[in-house]
Amino acid sequence: MLPQTEKLSSAQTNAAITKFSLSRHLSAEQKDLLNDVLSFCSAHLSDQSALLIIEGAVGTGKSVVLNAIFNTIQTRARSKNPDDPMTGTRNMLLVNHPEMLKLYRNVAAETPTLRKADFDRPTTFINRLHKTNQTADIVLVDEAHLLLTRADRYNHFQQQNHLEEILALARVVVVVFDPLQVLKFKSHWSADLLDRFKTGRATQTLHLTTQFRVEAGPEVRHWLDQLAAGHVGKHPQDPDFDLRVYDDCAQLYDDLKERNNEVGLCRLLSTYDYSYRLDGEDHFIEEGRFRLRWDRSKPDEKLPWAERPDTIDEVGSVYTIQGFDLNYAGVILGPSLFYDAQTDSIRVDPARYEDSAAFQGQSGIVAPQMAKERIILNALNVLLTRGMKGLYLYAHDPALRERLRNS
Questions:
Q1: Could you give the domains of the chain?
Q2: Quick count: other Cβ atoms within 10 Å of Cβ 67?
Q3: Which residues form the AAA+ ATPase domain (predicted)?
Q4: pTM across the whole model
Q5: Is 83 left (phi over 0), alpha (psi -120 to 50) or beta?
Q6: What span, in angstroms and rounded, lies between the C-alpha atoms of 254 and 355?
């Protein structure tokens, strides 16, 4: 199968950045949340420590509204209004996701009130402020479910918890959190652990509930929610959302490339069930007559994986696509997911999951086998909810393919 190179207009290639465009209208719910966050920040700037938590499922626009909040904060911080409590404040937005960090910094380059230096990864921020003996005023954290909950010496984090360190270094911390997007033991968050940080400081929790990404009715969204939880419901029909299940992964890829030529921002994704190593070599996913390489590691590439036109010729993982929107997503359900006819459900086999790094550091994890299964289903949830206009599915397990096609 020969790869096909995507040729897109500038509008299509910049579609991911457009997601964060400050000219994009926020919903009434998002505007209310923005105002509530700004009020909380102003009210607690003189406190020693305050914590605001924004909760919302995938596709509710958490990153979009966070970017709008941060732009407002930095606009006020860089103004010369002596009556504004935010004037002259030192603020940062952190995200423990290299692809999302690229997106934020690309947006900053197009926004007069933002600087690329306003954005960083948590470990870099923590180590720099400890070294310089500095503190910040307001710190926003996107994808806070990716914050570390234990030391990671390989990545130069010596302490035990990212959030604990950030709270010690900032007066006000605002985090965006979704427990169903926890993907590793070393960032194994729970409601109880998060609640621990509410003690002894001013706290508030806000919620986003309206789904914006998946342009489908409630039946499709419910079907996706159920599938991500391991349940196969009746296959819904929706004229506004193109949902297909394939017997042939190569045909799925051919159809996805056609959609990509038409509208752009279509990518093939897979569960982490096929061998992949960061050794500079290409590693391939093979299913029948389908064969395509995993996404190549390009840490110095300025564009995020989802935005690069050449990545139509690759298969992305949960780590390259988390936080991004696609027009159409093709998703391969790999060998770790199989159909159990007795329970009429999707079962999980962690032994077939190739992301061994996700399960490193089991100490302190209650019921590690169940936690492994939860992490795999969380990753599935992320993959299934990337497509705005459509989702094309293929399952490695023949029984699961048959059940999905005849649901």
A1: 28-208 (3.40.50.300), 214-405 (3.40.50)
A2: 25
A3: 48-300
A4: 0.89
A5: alpha
A6: 27
Residue 52 is encoded by which pair of tokens? 């605001």
Residue spans of alpha helices (H) in 180-297: 191-196, 218-228, 249-263
Per residue of the chain (407 residues), what is the pLDDT tens digit? 333 344 444 434 344 445 555 546 799 999 999 999 999 999 999 999 999 999 998 888 999 999 999 999 999 999 989 999 999 999 999 999 999 999 999 999 999 999 999 999 999 999 999 999 999 999 999 999 999 999 998 889 999 999 999 999 999 999 999 988 999 999 988 778 889 999 999 999 999 998 788 899 999 999 999 999 999 999 899 999 999 999 999 999 999 999 999 999 999 999 999 999 888 899 999 999 999 999 998 888 989 999 999 999 999 999 999 999 999 999 999 999 999 999 999 999 999 999 988 998 887 787 889 999 999 999 999 999 999 999 999 999 999 999 999 87
β-strands 50-56, 170-177 pairing:
parallel
Q: Token digits for 12?
A: 């299509």
Q: Rounded to whole angstroms, how far apart are CA atoms 376 and 295?
A: 19
| Residue type for position 366 | V
Measured CA to CA, the distance from residue 204 to residue 53 in angstroms comes to 6
